[in-house]
Amino acid sequence: MSAPPFIDSLDFAKNGQQISGEMLIADLLRLSDVLENSQGVLRFTVQGSLNKYGVPMLVLSLSGSCTLRCQRCLGSLDYPVTLETTVLLRSQAELDALEESDEEEYDSILAQVKLDIQDLLEEEVLLSLPIAPKHEVGACQTTNRDDAGKDAKHPFAALAKLKT
User: What does pTM read for this prediction?
Assistant: First the structure.
């Protein structure tokens, strides 16, 4: 099952509704710039509820794997995506007031009658990705630079001869 395009976020949270499903990574267009390829699937669950203060919230769970580009070797890097986050649903006035204070424990988003679930989940995936993904040290697909230069002539060897 794929995500419904939109939900009424306040109604969804107040009634404790839940949806689960899968999204194709290829459908997440904003991710295409940071991915090596767009193959794969992400599984998700969105659970609505009220926190202990009665504030509506959404608990987002995502799992799966995507393929990033290693910044050392420019090769493929399988990156597991496993995240669970909570976002509070607020009015525009509440969001404006929160900007002025540092008391927020959870992220807050604007409560909307037509909240785009796929866009919200894609945003969470983007925020969870590393800025510069890299393989573990020594696991890159290229040869070690120290070993590669042993057989090659040093570029300044001819200058060293001129010095004498």
Answer: 0.75
